[in-house]
Amino acid sequence: MRSGSSLGIGVHAKATDCDEKKPRDRTLVQSRYLAQIRDMLPHSSVFLLVGSLIVLPAHARTAPVRGPDPQATARTHNLIPVPASVAWGRGVLRLDSTATIDVVRHEDARLSRAIARFRGRLERRLGAEMSHAPASSAATATFRIDVASAGDAVQSVNENESYTITVDSERVTLQAPTVTGALRGLETLMQLLTQREGRYELPAVAIRDAPRYPWRGLLVDVARHFIPVEGIKRTLDGMAAVKLNVLHWHLTDDQGFRIESKRYPKLQSSGSDGDFYTQEQVRDVVAYARDRGIRIVPEFDMPSHSTTWFIGYPELASIPGTYGIVRTFGGGDASFDPTIEATYRFLDRFIGEIAPLFPDAYWHVGGDEVTARHWNESRRVRAYKRAHGIRTNAQLQGAFNRRLSRILATHGKKMVGWDEILYPGLPKSTVVQSWRSDGRLERATAQGYRGLQSAPYYLDRIKTAEEHYLADVDPSGDGVAAGRGTLVLGGEACMWTEHVNAETIDSRLWPRLGAIAERFWSPREVNDVGDMYRRLNALDAQLLEYDIGRALHIQRMVRRMSPDESVRHAVESLLEAVAPPTFLERIRGQGTTTLTPLVHMIDAAVPDPWGRWETERLVAASVADTQVARSGANELQTQADARDSLVTLFTRWRDALGPIRVGAMTSRFVAEALPIAEALSRASEIGLEALGHLGAGERPEPDWSSRSMVELAAYETPRNLLRLEIVGPVRRLVQAAEAGVSATTGR
Whose CA is closest to 249, among 296, 283, 295? Predict the structure, then answer.
């Protein structure tokens, strides 16, 4: 389920990932970036960004040109996730402040609040107040919202989330069987809204949509590093935008107990360092989530990952003693004692107190990484196993889970657990969540259990959006071929926070989470990587209205690293092509604990930086690989334009080294970037040399290619835990130059 250990700045690492926007000259870039975001941002946000453009990262200052097959671009617009069925019509619906909204059939407070939020977002984009009076009739309303019913009193895994949208030149009709379906449709309308020639409009379209999977979740670990309520709400806003519907709230672990218990107050007073959610805050977050069509499933990890339970109540541990909050990362040895009735009485009372805070039918018990060392050392546990014919600790955990499942059932809850809980005798109502990739989901569903897939979707591993996107929830094909039908409920992305805190979590979630959300929602056949990256750009800009975005993250982090604007701009340029270390690289290279300030260059760097994919696409265009090189403008980017764009990129990256050297003399944070800045500068010089050879149509001198390849290979080694992400595309340019690819004919 997670990994753990420690690290320290100053070692080497490597990176992945990809941002997405195309930088150029600063003046031109500023105007293009504003033009891009006006299509998707609230009106007021544009003015906010105008005032702060000088500190926006360079990669956020230009309109993207990446993309896929032009037909895919036309089909998908800026929609993410892509709907099940889209039929584009002719014409547009122009919108202004005279637009009206009318609700027919069902209307309730939840729907009214959703429409009020929708109207507010429209008003901010239009820059004018819309009429709040109902239309004179449904026939004359600009937006006709037709909802059949409220849906489930408590949103369930069986909730109908389907909707249809029809837009013509006169009006929009949104129809949904439930309020939850209407919420999904309203988000689609916001993504359809575009600006052209100074006016906002919706394209004529007919959409029929429903999710591929009913459980589309995100785990947020708040035990390792606490995420305050405002961060959780911001995450919920982003989740709603991409139609995710489950927040899996990991509330307890060895490093923190993050919820208030009034019955057992020593849980939070001893186990949280003062950072926990009050019960009133939990109710507020649950209500906030429900308003956005999101269920909340709490996780209280047991029998292991449970140290913070025992700080205040050591009698529950297999080996009673003195316990303290664990500051390092990894699986702890402390475990509940499954052999004493006091454990089950305590858990029964605790669950009875907390269960009403979470109306959802499911309760996650963790159950992973039970090292069982304390079970092996406990004479009482060993004697219990002998007396009851229990041979293994896995059998003992199975017995514990069966008791726990019965307790949960008395409080109206069904058990969810990580795949280690799968053991004979587990109630069939249990949902098994697969975090290991060796066929665990298939194994669970083959035994008749419903399952969730998480193995490919660990965002803290710092994989690219592409890697997450191409990993299917159920590789065998929706489970149908294997006779598993609807047992595969869906999947959850996971954000474990060993190396993530309240300041950095947004940049680790977004926009990559949008790609995973599409995998959970859209048809299996939607898998065009280039088009996905184009639409992630649009999502990244859209999420600025919730104060979420890579540009904002980099801007905030870099601003405090240096007072020198030229140094900040150079670092921002560097971070277009540099990624943080993978989870294991950071574990091996930096000795972090829960007390380590996450303020270093590796924390400013974003997963999947824009320069990786953009350089790949431009290089492909430069060597006439049309499968990769198609742009988001519904046409192929010319070879000459692609090479010009690469010259601009490589020149900026090469020239970032000088200001970074200056900044490194006075800022230890900037100094952390100096080794990777030197690598980026030299790799960019090699790219420029290759482009020069290609432009002249001449092969380089005999040993240039081999020397360049050796040098580039060296730059794949991480430097101060930062990874250079453009080595592969530059290597391809060198190969093209060596092969003698001409400037105009491709070969």
Answer: 296
Tell me, yes or no, whether 629 lies in a domain.
Answer: yes
Last residue of a domain, one of 148, 181, 209: 209
CATH number at residue 384: 3.20.20.80
CB-based burial label for 307 (10 Å; 0-12, 13-18, 19+): buried
Q: Is the peptide bond before 303 cis (omega within 30 degrees of 0)?
A: yes
Does 722 lie in the same domain as 703?
Answer: yes
Among residues 187, 209, 231, which one ends one of the domains?
A: 209
Q: Give the pLDDT mean for 188-215.
A: 95
Of the chain, the percentage scoring pLDDT greater than 70 comes to: 86
Pair 185, 93 in one domain: yes
- Say yes or no: 115 and 247 in one domain: no
- pLDDT tens for 233-285 read 999 999 999 999 999 999 999 999 999 999 999 999 999 999 999 999 999 99
Residue 404 lies in a domain: yes
CATH classification at residue 156 = 3.30.379.10
With residue 406 as reference, give the H or E element that holds it.
helix 393-410
Q: pLDDT tens digit string along 554-593?
A: 999 999 999 999 999 999 999 999 999 999 899 888 888 9
Say if CB 17 and CB 464 are below 8 A apart: yes
The residues near 563 (Cβ < 8 Å, ≥ 6 apart) are none
The CA-atom distances, in angstroms, between 120 and each of 116, 132, 237, 382, 563 are 6, 10, 14, 63, 37
Residue 198: partners with Cβ closer than 8 Å, 6 or more residues away: none
Which range, of 47-61, 117-131, 387-401, 667-681, averages the lowest pLDDT? 47-61
Average pLDDT over the chain, rounded to an integer: 87
Instruction: Count how many domains the chain has.
Output: 3
- Per the CB < 8 A criterion, the answer to whether 217 and 491 are in contact is yes
194 shares a domain with 140: yes
Rounded CA-CA distance 675/531 in Å is: 34
Let me know whether 192 and 272 are in one domain.
Answer: no
- The two tokens of residue 602 are 């590796």
Residue 118: domain span: 87-209
Asked if the structure places residue 168 within a domain, the reply is yes
Q: Tell me: do 106 and 249 sit in the same domain.
A: no
Strand 172-176 to 414-418 pairing = unpaired
| C-alpha dihedral sign at 268, 271, 276, 277 | negative
Query: How many CB atoms neighbour CB 409 within 10 A?
Result: 13
Which residues does the annotation mark as catalytic?
369
Q: Token digits for 695? A: 């432009």
* Distance (Å, whole) CA 431 – CA 442: 13
* 160 residue type, one letter: N
Asked if residue 17 belongs to a domain, the reply is no
State the DSSP string of 108-147. Answer: -HHHHHHHHHHHHHHHHHHTSPPP-SPPSSGGG-SEEEEE
Same domain for 225 and 202: no
Query: Do residues 267 and 188 both lie within one domain?
Result: no
Residue 168's Cα: distance from chain center in Å? 34
pTM: 0.89
The angle formed by the CA atoms of residues 593, 598 and 604, to the nearest 5 degrees, is: 145
- Are 63 and 32 a contacting pair, CB within 8 Å? yes
Close Cβ partners of 265 (under 8 Å, ≥ 6 residues apart): none
Q: For the chain, what percent of residues have pLDDT higher than 90?
A: 78
Query: d(Cα 502, Cα 275) in Å, to the nearest integer?
Result: 12
